[in-house]
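Protocol step 4 of 6: record predicted structures for both targets in the notebook before any analysis. Target 1:
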Amino acid sequence: MMDLQSGVQPDIKTSHWQNLPSLLLCYRFEPRRRLEQLAGAGLEVPGFSMKELRAKLPNGYWTDCICEKDRDLTWKELERGLPPHRPLAQIFSLEYRLQSLQGAWVWVRETGVAYADNGQIYIQSYIEKIEKQGVWLMQHDTLTLPLMSYADRGAFLYDALKTQLKQAMKLAKTRNTLLAIIFLRIKNYDLICNLSGYVQGEQILRQIDERLLDNIRRSDWVLQISENKFCIVLQDIEVEDDSVRVIHQIENIVAEPIHVGSEVLMAKTQVGVSFFPKDSEDEEDLLNKANIALHHNTRSDQLSFHRYEQKVYERLTRENQIEKDLPEAISHQQFQVYYQPVIELSTGRVVGAEALLRWLHPEQGFIPPAEFIPVAERSGHIVAIGALVFEMICQHLRDEFSECEDDFRIAVNVSTHQLNDRNFLPFLQETLKYYQIPTSRICIELTESLFVDNAQAKAKLTAIKKMGCQLSLDDFGTGYSNLGYLSQLDFDHIKIDQSFIRKITSASIDALLVESIITMAHHLNLKIIAEGVEMKEQLELLKEYHCDQIQGYYFSKPLPQEEFKAWLKQWAGRL
């Protein structure tokens, strides 16, 4: 490391780049490019040495190392790409020649970013040798930087971003103002590239970058930090609502039609934002929290932006821990199956039960299904969990519930991920055969949203029905409510969602809806199951409406198999 002038940020000794086989520069933005710091990290650029570079730089001007024929052009390209009023505007890439120890001119590529400090603009660069004579570049997209890995490029930008943000935070504290750290993602970038090609995708990113630069103040700055993601920092914010107006303006600007050749394309954005000093006084933490806000926006699939919220952070932290614990939960079979009985109203018989999944964590106790099932679905663990649960159900049917009547069935909830798994049908058949369970004792329960515009799901459900299993449509009335599904698939049961049952004794409209659903189902030769029955008044109304079957806490809460088996023996058809 050689310090040519002290007191300049960033200190590249603390940078991610100190461990890379590369050459690092930190210099002022001026024609001769006055060096402030120079570092040779690990292995040096092939054909060069730190000793030689020091000898060539008695005055600290980097241009003294560059081939004379290339000097003016490198400056013009650098000046064009990084105008003084746009510090940290973009990542740049230059190609030029340096002379090696052997006297040969070697082509290198310099990749860097700019930052501001005390009225000066400085550039931090990464130098690498290239094997071909290059074409001049001044672009900021990842596809033009083949020699730098995505991970290294991201770390390089992240270091530069933290450095600039640290300076901005000091200034904001002095002025008693706020900073808004904004992460903006082009959420349909992959779709655009798939439809139009990556060349068009690059052009779109350039246009978006130009729009952002043209529509923010000179005190603000923007940096593209990944293929479809930008970071924008708004300085001198008096109140948070000032940034809200800017964010909406940015969203509208990016959403304007983009002309690429003869095509007109539209970019859609997702935005997350954090604020200094409200959310944190640490630059890395602020960036992390803006990214968390963006992640929350991505998950919720909304067009509007999201502020960072502590409760969102806590929830995401919780979900991350759940995802980490799921593999062990599967391998150590920490899951249990609980059963809630289904009662036939006309006879009082127990005609089946719904299987409900429970996770008994060795340290945290029971984790609610509403917490871990969405995480299992997003992470793909739901397929393995579903297989484990189905085996437990078949084993219970064989060993615990063998004395039940022939029409006794177990309803199993199936997710989209399970149904789309190519091994689902063979697994279903083989497991039933292994445990010698009649197919009529299994009822596959699913929601409307599972097979909306899903031809593959419909085909599998038809095959399941041909096997002899029953089909039940769950949560009827809360989804898409398309009655066409009832004619497309041969359902056996429709389950009225408990949100309707809960209000049938107090809301006439819900009572009318429930009665209408029951009447319609009977005309279609379908049986109705009302779930969530908790009071005698609800039971009496459902009898009056000629509901077929019911389940709910009025009879029993969900029970583990041993307790459910004991409950079955005690049940005497009492309604």
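Target 2:
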Amino acid sequence: MALKSSGLSLAAQPPEEENSTSRVRVLNLTSDSFLKGASSQEIIAQRDCSSGSGGGVGYNESAPQRGPTRGGALLILVALAESVDALLREYVAAPARTDAVELRLDRLTDSDLTPLFKATGKPRIATCRSRAQGGFFGGSEEERRAVLKRAIDLGAEFVDLEFESDDEEILGRTDKSRPLLSYHHRGGTPLNLEAIYRRMAQRSPEAILKLIPYADACSDNLRVRGLLHLARAEGRDLIAFCMGERGKVSRILARAWGSWGVYAPARSESTTAPGQLLLDELEEVFREGELHESSPLTGVLGHPVSGSLSPLLYNRAYRELGLNGCFLPIDAEGVAEFLPLLSDLPITGLAVTHPHKQSFATHCDELEPAAGAVGAVNTVVRRWNRLVGYNTDIEGALRPLSALMDLRGAKVGILGCGGSATAAAYGLTRAGARVILFGRNPQPSEAAAARAGCTAQTWDKASSFRGDVLINATPVGMAPSPAESPLSWEKARAEIAFDFVYNPRVTAFLREARLAGARILTGDSMFLEQALLQFEILTGRAAPRALFEEILSSQLQGNDS
């Protein structure tokens, strides 16, 4: 499958030169011009000049603007609480790096909003989200609108009004509060996304539009990007990204694509939508504030990927080594739904995980010999217009086991017949081990065994396996279902039990094995070894092993029992 070249690499790049001649107009938060039509860049300037906070634009008129691609798109803190006092504490404690705060009023149990709008601080977006739009407000629509009107009367800088509801009666009567006209669609990404945008745009020429669909497929992220490009071409302020696990790509890249803002809570308790990333994740892990449309991208492709530590590991390493770009979590149920992203985004390489290791191999233009032999890839790089596939699972499985035992003549059972199982079987067979693959379906099991040069047996025989090593190469037991185990150790026996699942560190499979008298080998040992090789292939740089070990230790230390 030949793809157009991104022409990019992850090599360290010098920062873009800032335009030292650009000037930011400082506005008064109480002026009509600000409230009715201020750009996000001007809001940031006002924020920094009035509060003295660091980051972003500086403190005076001659301060340079943020990057030319992203402009001054806002990082918006989501504040959610049940009491005014608690919500006020979140507002006052808003980190300096945020540009505005969304005050979620729909969960409040008390009614006096005055303290929230008397306090000085960052610009406020007053939101009282209905349950129909995914919010928490339990009263009538008339009561909800009364809350919004009260926020306007108290001087909210922005007010969120729900599209095609009676909230539109407030449009044109928001006084000094600039309206956001919002639409949230949790039933998937509508086919008529542009038509909805057009209807919204006709309602109010001054409103910031907010259009948030739910991603059914990871390719829906591109539809949102297209909408942002359209709005930018028309000079329209639009907030757009996708909800859901498959929509995280658009959240991370929203401001790089031209969204007027992106939302993030500081605490998990303040999460208001599926797939929402925490502020520290968005800024510290993914460094989304540094991204532009041309920033080189890598990522982990799988389903699910929510439990993967790869984004944390790789993004921290990129920062330490001074590498440009971002490592994304890319959730796709099938490879086909991901291919449009591969064609349209500056993706330079991928880590490929369950269940796509075998299917993605068929999309590669070239496979290194071991990957070709096992018919599975876990690492893919784009070299000009060609995809080259590698398999680092082979060494990832061999190295930890070789450190514990002589593999020559060892009897090894492997649960599963997917890409990881086949790679491990291939490596172990060549190291002299006698390997048996146990699969639920005879045809793929036998095909995998033929590739690896070993034998296959039916799944039911695994429960009575007796040998030196028994490996779980299935995703069973992985978070978010850590209580599950692929096999009961009632009859099975092995000297060493090895689980390729690494989160949680000690799985139900390993706990039962230990009770049955086996030594256990945790999946983080394989993950580490394959990741070190993978990182070098993706970046051309040696991986920071000490950093990888430190992160894995800190993230998995609570899973030892």
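Step 5 preliminary note on target 2. Residues 523-539 form the longest helix (17 residues). The two ends are 45 Å apart (CA to CA).
Proceed to step 6 after PI sign-off.
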